[in-house]
Amino acid sequence: MATEVIKTAETANLEVFSATLQELAAHDRDILVVTSDSRGSGKLGPFGVKFPDQIIEVGIAEQNLVGVAAGLASMGKKAFAVSPACFLTARSLEQIKNDVAYSDNPVKLIGISAGVSYGALGTTHHSLHDYAVLRAINNITIIAPADNFETAEAIRQAAETESPVYIRFGKKGMPDNLSRQISEFRIGKGRVVREGGDLTFVATGEAVLPCVKAADLLEQTYNVRCKVISMHTIKPLDEALLFETAGNNQPIITVEEHSVNGGLGEAVASFLFQKGFRNSFKIVALPDEHTVSGSQTEIFEHYGISEKGLVQTALSLIQP
């Protein structure tokens, strides 16, 4: 029998990231944090107070941030480079490509305030390109935790990983655990947080929560039972889970806080099409246009990354 473990209190994944890193640093002096004037926004103030010798501030210089972190990692340190995702994966893309991935330095790149978390600050501060550009770079794992449980486990496992990792966090408070039952987390393996055989949502990061809410509403109102997969690792994809899921020929909807180009949806579509699957399929993401202004919630609602929007998308595939 499934064991209910969902809690109502919601803490931002960034807060959990900071707390987990503090736990690890207390027992491992090789853990070093490098920030680009992002100690506050990365929730690393407490870390700096407790471990002043394990945090390095480079200022608003993202390219230097990655270069310094790569140098530390090359000397055996467990370097976490923390910076807003929009700048980390744009300004310092060359350093990520060459100093980290190509040079095989196991830096943990932490993209904070990702997606449209910055809300009304607009396109300059949105990170809707990071999955796409990093998927095109060899030798880097891409992770977007959906809840506090996935966040803590991702940081613990990443700290022991001897290869480059990019982990993406938003700012919104998230549930402790979206799963209704005890389930493990492993980098590279998707996590089924809801079971169902009529339709599957494959989502990542903070886009998983609206899928869970939509699945609940679809079951209660329309007797449609949906599977929800937290595909927290965008690269490498859990191809075995996708293969198993697509085997029932039911519709699949991918959902992400990213451009419709080059993200989770295109990765899943490419895999399924090349394996010969022909399930009804829909990518829910931000379209290739100037993004509307507003809070993250307002932007999600505008583009259908919401409970109501996803219910309508699901019904359109089930009842065309």
Distance between the termini: 35 Å
Q: What is the count of β-strands?
A: 14
Helical amount: 25-40%
Q: Quote the beta fraction.
A: 15-25%
Q: How much is the average pLDDT?
A: 94
- The CATH superfamily of the largest domain bears the name Thiamin diphosphate (ThDP)-binding fold, Pyr/PP domains
Q: CATH top level of the largest domain? A: Alpha Beta
Assigned CATH architecture of the largest domain: 3-Layer(aba) Sandwich
Largest sheet: 7 strands, mixed
Low-confidence stretches: 1-8
Descriptive overview:
The protein is an alpha/beta fold. It folds into two domains: 10-174, Thiamin diphosphate (ThDP)-binding fold, Pyr/PP domains (Rossmann fold); 178-318, Rossmann fold (3-Layer(aba) Sandwich), CATH 3.40.50. 37% of the residues lie in helices and 20% in strands. The chain has twelve helices and 14 strands. It has helices at 13-25, 45-50, 62-74, 85-88, 93-102, 130-135, 148-159, 208-222, 239-246, 264-274, 296-302, 307-318; strands at 10-12, 31-35, 55-57, 78-84, 108-112, 141-143, 165-168, 173-175, 191-194, 199-203, 226-230, 233-235, 252-259, 281-286. The chain has a seven-stranded mixed sheet, with helices on both faces. A five-stranded mixed sheet has the order 9-11-10-13-14, with helices on both faces. A two-stranded antiparallel ribbon has the order 1-8. α8 (208-222) packs across α12. The longest helix has 15 residues, at 208-222. The radius of gyration is 19 Å and the shape is globular. The model is unreliable at 1-8 (pLDDT under 50).
